[in-house]
Amino acid sequence: MLKAFRSLYVGFVLLLAPYTTIATTSGREALVTSMDTVQCSVNSGVMATLSGVPAIQKTCSEYVLESPSVLYRVRPHKNDALLPVGEIVSIRFSKNHLHVRVDDSNQEYEFDVVSMELTKRPARNEIETQAAVSSAHRAERLRLSK
Questions:
Q1: Is residue 102 a contact partner of residue 83, using CB atoms and an 8 Å limit?
Q2: Which residue of 44, 109, 141, 142 could cross-link 48, Cys pair, CB 3.0 to 4.6 Å?
Q3: What is the rounded CA–CA span in Å between residue 60 and residue 76?
Q4: Global pTM value
């Protein structure tokens, strides 16, 4: 009897395993709103910096990605990846980098996050109103429970 339950449990876990990995690995989506070319410096290492060797100046692409709640400014980490402006891309964070995948390709590009900004900020009076309503509900429930 115990063996039957154990095998049923193992079969159930194996059946649901692909669905749980899909749910955890899927990322968010963002809209690529713009691309700018900016000056960025590349250090050749710690020793070069300590010895006073000036940093090498080069141009980098900087993208603005707009998700439903956050506006990201990102730059390619190693290679100069080209993202299509106006397209929706999949994004996910991993090891202090933002990984971007364009729907057409199977390749994922790694970006450094320059800045993040909230796009939807709740107004202070909305927060205070919600807090007052919830405390009034709590007081009403306490009064009715007595």
A1: yes
A2: 44
A3: 8
A4: 0.58
Tokens of 25: 């690995």
Q: Token digits for 46? A: 């710690």
Could you read off the pLDDT tens digit of each residue along the chain, which spans 146 residues?
556 545 545 444 444 444 443 333 446 899 999 999 888 766 666 666 677 777 677 888 999 999 988 999 999 988 778 888 999 999 998 888 899 998 767 888 999 999 999 887 666 666 666 666 667 766 776 777 76
DSSP 3-state assignment of 111?
strand
Cα–Cα distance between 139 and 78 in angstroms, integer?
57
Sign of CA dihedral 28, 33, 35, 40: negative
Give domain limits for the chain: 28-118
